Amino acid sequence: MRLLAFTDTHANKTALNRIIAKAEKYKPDFMVCAGDISMFTKGLDKCCAILNKLNIKILIIPGNHETPEDIKSVCSKYPNFINIHSGEFSYNDFSFFGWGTGGFSFVEEGFERIAKQFKKVFSKKRKLIFVTHAPIYGTRLDDLRVNGLGHRGCKSTRKFVDEMNPVLVLCGHFHENFRKQDKIKNTLIINPGPDGTIINVD
């Protein structure tokens, strides 16, 4: 399965054009947005209208620049957008599970409640892809030592990754770490950046 993943475009026209070019060149099975497609909702509708014309299904979660209601609204308006915040989307033997918003807390109690429910129904025969906005704690993607802050990712999602061993995690939020990758055991973790990253998942 081929994915074109992106995050934190913040309605930037250059980033959108680069994503479109990659979509047309590589023809991914799905596109995945890990949040902050807009600038505090400015440009949200316009960006979604433009990307919707690609006729590729786009799985999306809210970042800290959108609310879950914002994303739910554009997904109801544009048929190629699929809201996976607090939910699951299945394709062949893959399951996408999403959690958006936030990005500033070590502990996300709302996520922990949703994750507990998800773990009860998830079949481990399926390959899990986890999409979240905040970076995973203790990885290269949440490391802000350059700013004197150290690891500032989410510990709640780190626990989920440790327990569930997804094949892939997509996250964003920290612009300093665009396009960085890391691994936790066999889990590949990527901040795909605003220009989009092609990822092939077996």
Write a structural description.
With 202 residues, this protein is an alpha/beta fold. The chain has one domain (2-200): Purple Acid Phosphatase, chain A, domain 2 (4-Layer Sandwich). Helix content is 28%, strand content 23%. The chain is built from five helices and eleven strands, in the order E-H-E-H-E-H-E-E-E-H-E-H-E-E-E-E. It has helices at residues 13-26, 44-52, 68-77, 109-121, 155-164, and strands spanning 2-6, 30-33, 58-60, 81-83, 88-91, 94-99, 127-132, 168-170, 181-184, 187-190, 197-200. The strands form two sheets. It has a six-stranded mixed β-sheet with strand order 5-6-7-8-10-9, with helices on one face. A five-stranded mixed β-sheet has the order 4-3-2-1-11. Helix 4 (109-121) runs parallel beside helix 5 (155-164). The protein is globular and about 40 Å long. The N and C termini lie close together (6 Å). The model has no long low-confidence stretch (mean pLDDT 94).
What is the number of domains? 1
Distance between the ends: 6 Å
> What's the total number of strands?
11
What value does the Rg take, in angstroms?
Answer: 15 Å
Order of helices and strands: EHEHEHEEEHEHEEEE
CATH architecture level-2 label: 4-Layer Sandwich
Instruction: Name the shape in a single word.
Output: globular
CATH H-level superfamily title: Metallo-dependent phosphatases
Biggest sheet: strand arrangement: 5-6-7-8-10-9
How would a crystallographer describe the biggest sheet?
6 strands, mixed
Structural class: alpha/beta
Instruction: Give me the number of helical elements.
Output: 5
> Under the CATH scheme, which class?
Alpha Beta
Mean pLDDT: 94
**How helix-rich are the residues, as a percent range?**
25-40%
Poorly predicted sequence stretches spanning 5 or more consecutive residues = none
